[in-house]
Structure formats: structure tokens, C-alpha cells
Amino acid sequence: MTDPKTLAARFPGDFVFGVATASFQIEGASKADGRKPSIWDAFSNMPGRVFGRHNGDIACDHYNRWEQDLDLIAEMGVSAYRFSIAWPRIIPEGTGRINEPGLDFYDKLVDGLKARNIKAFATLYHWDLPLALMGDGGWTARSTAYAFQRYAKVVMARLGDRLDAVATFNEPWCSVWLSHLYGVHAPGERNMEAALHAMHYTNLAHGLGVDAIRQVAPQVPAGLVLNAHSVIPGSDSAEDKAAAERAFQFHNGAFFGPVFKGEYPADMMEALGDKMPKVEDGDLEIISQKLDWWGLNYYTPMRVSANPDASADYPATKDAPPVSKVKTDIGWEVYAPALKSLVETLYDRYELPVCYITENGACYNMGLDAKGEVDDQPRLDYYSEHLGVVADLIKDGFPMRGYFAWSLMDNFEWAEGYRMRFGLVHVDYDTQVRTVKKSGKWYSELAAQFPAGNYKSA
Ligand code: FCB
């Protein structure tokens, strides 16, 4: 572990240190003030989908406790907060009626951040699609992209004057592949054709969302948050290397290609083009508008080898074994060098704007000890190691502008429910008591140094 002050000296003084959350994971109050269900309410209330049939009805009760939570962020000395806005609070049926009390909540939240001198980084879509839109096919329908554009306009018209940055989407990889091909996340579909439709219409919605932001609040830096995969071949064989390239195109190229190059990966289109929706004239221009920034969410590498099964769908890969023996409690391999090579590869392959690490962190489930403290040394080590890599990237000249720890506090970890904990702050779900963990104290010692006097970025 590195001493926070020593680590701080490796970052420019204007580097942004923040913490991140997402609406469905923390807010609860799922029926309050006109909110209607999202696809995650439906999915989590369905037996067999989420661990223990946990749902988002109460979560961290942040909807009612937001002031204390913002105080906590301020007390920790953290100067930026990444949160997401719940579409079903703003336009409960996805289209149609606007729900003013929903907008009021985020209005107060953003004012609360400004009052505490905390930067507001908003995400418009972190997976809570209004359930009513499933009637038209959800993300597999082109109309959903236009519904998103309208929602983006409504939000930006109300909050745009006070946001420091906005992202259209969080991790399209999850809301597309994990949700429509692998069936793990809502709506739980397992179908390549559906997934490819969701892919294109999500990409289109991103582009239309950027349009909306630029029309209504052009002063707010607009970006996109991607969980790019650091794809590593399982061996040096030509087959495994080719498999890794296919995996790169499928898992990264499907989003980076259209957004940063205005094209889908050629091999992928050759293999899967017959299942694609119609890409209309002008779609790729809308999708590939220049962004002000992009966000990288990184946790663990993806190791792949070739799948010899002739009937395997593109990208025809299978998992290769981890190299590092260290794993977090959710089973993800800890391997910080993959973060370095990932950023290098992405800047090599695409023309990317400045980067924020918008999520990075580790799942460890230890609770309070006899002294009422949470000793989560492995999480602290994870942060220390990965932040060291970010400092190395800055030294090498990559335009890394900030880092957000996932997460401020333990929360609803999607299909894993509340059993998997990623927080710097422990949440007791019976009492809603928050306890800053050892890692949280370490992180706040680091974050509290910023902004610092040693500005050196361009
Ligand atoms: C990411 C999600 C975030 C959280 C972390 C652990 O994929 O964006 O909401 O669940 O994983």
C-alpha cells in the first residue's frame, strides 16, 4: 500500500478525485413522487433473476437521505460526485408526461452539491429504462433512441446550468450484451438479433443525446462512459491471438468503432450483419459526433482463447484462466497492468478525447468488527495499486483528468443484490447507518489534497 500523500504527489493539482454511484443502486423510494417502474424493478421482482430476490425498493434510501450522503462526501474531502438520473422519475412512462417532482429531486441534489463545492458529474442512463418502453421492444426498438433524446433534453434544460459534466450512457456493453445476449441483466434477453438491435439503437441514442445536450446546454462537457475490456489472449498461439482480436472488436469495437470512427468493425459486420437492424443514412454521423471527454470503467481483465466449436457465434471465444491468484469477493481477477495496456491500446486505435476513470474499485464483503470498524485492507490495496497505474499513465503523457472510486457506499449490485459490497462506506441495510471503511479513510486522505497548488496539465 502507498501512503496517500506520496501518491498525491504523482497527480497534477487539478486532477479530479471523486466517488460514484447510480440511481437504481442507491435511491430506493421506488414508488415515491410519481416514479414508475423501470426494467430493473420488473427484473428484480421476478424469481430467479437477482440474488435473494433483492430489489431496489429501499436500497440505501438515498432518495430520503441525500443531504446526509452529500455531507458525507464533503466530510471525506472528495471534490466530485458522479451520480445518475433515473429516467422513470423524470418521464415515468418513457414518453409523454413529464414528472416535475422527479426533476425537483435532482435539482435539489445538484444545488446541494454546489453548496458543498462538489463537482456534479451526471449520467443520463445507468440502466433504469422506464418499463413502459418495453411495450415497444425497449432498446431493441429504434423509437427508444428518440425517447431518450427527448428525456436528455428535458434533463439538460433543467440541470444543465449547474452540471460540470454529463455522460449519455454508462457501460453500453452491459445494457447491450449482458442484458440482451447473456441474459444476466434486465431485461434478461438471450438473443443475438435482439442484442444487435439494442447495440445500434443504444449507439444511436448516445448520438441523439449528444445532440440534445449541445442544443440545450452546450456549455456542459458531453461524454460517454465505456467499460472497455482489456482483452488478453490465453496463450501465444495464432488461434488465441486471433480470438483476442475478435473479442476486442465485439466487446470494444461495437461501441468505440461507431462512436470514435463512425463505423462498425468490418469482421463483426461480416459475421453478424444479417442479424443487424437497418443502419439508416446519417446514423453513423449522429453517433460519431466529437465528444468533450470519455469515461473508462475498469475492474478486471478479460482473458480469452479460441472456441473451436464450429457452431459458436462470433466472436467464437471462451474464457481463459486468470494469471493473478488475487481475486475479489465477486470472483474478479485483480490485475492492474491490464488497465495500463488497455488505455495504451485504446489511444493507439482510436482518436480519443481526454479521459476520466469513471469507475474503478473492488468487491470485498467484510462487515464491522468488534470495534465498529471495517478493516478492508484488500480494497485499499486495490485502490492504491490501480491509482499507481493511473499516475504512470499521466507520466507517460496520457490525458487522464480524473478518477472516481466505485463506489461511495455499498449498494444494490445488480444481479448480485446486496450481498456484494463495493463501498468506501459500509451500509447497514437494517438501520441505514453508514460507516466509513479503512479504504474510505485512506481515499479521503488522498482526495482531500485536491485541488492542490501544483497544477501542471495543459
Ligand atoms: C459496473 C457498473 C456499476 C457497478 C460496478 C461494480 O459495471 O457500472 O453500476 O455495479 O460495475
What tags apply to this protein structure?
binds beta-D-fucopyranose; 8-stranded parallel barrel; TIM Barrel; 458 residues; 3-stranded mixed beta sheet; alpha/beta
Give a written overview of the molecule:
The chain has 458 residues and is of the alpha/beta class. The chain has a single domain (4-447), classed as TIM Barrel, CATH 3.20.20.80. Helix content is 39%, strand content 14%. It has 15 helices and 13 strands. The chain has helices spanning 4-8, 23-26, 39-44, 62-75, 87-90, 100-115, 142-159, 172-180, 192-216, 238-261, 266-272, 283-287, 337-349, 377-395, 438-447, and strands spanning 16-20, 80-84, 119-125, 165-170, 222-226, 231-233, 293-297, 302-306, 317-319, 354-359, 400-406, 425-428, 433-436. The chain has an 8-stranded parallel β-barrel with strand order 1-2-3-4-5-7-10-11, surrounded by 4 helices. It has a 3-stranded mixed sheet with strand order 6-8-9, covered by helices on one side. Strand 12 (425-428) and strand 13 form a beta hairpin. It is globular. The two termini are 30 Å apart. It binds beta-D-fucopyranose (FCB). Residues 22, 25, 170-171, 174, 227, 297, 359, 406, 413-414, 422 line the site of beta-D-fucopyranose.
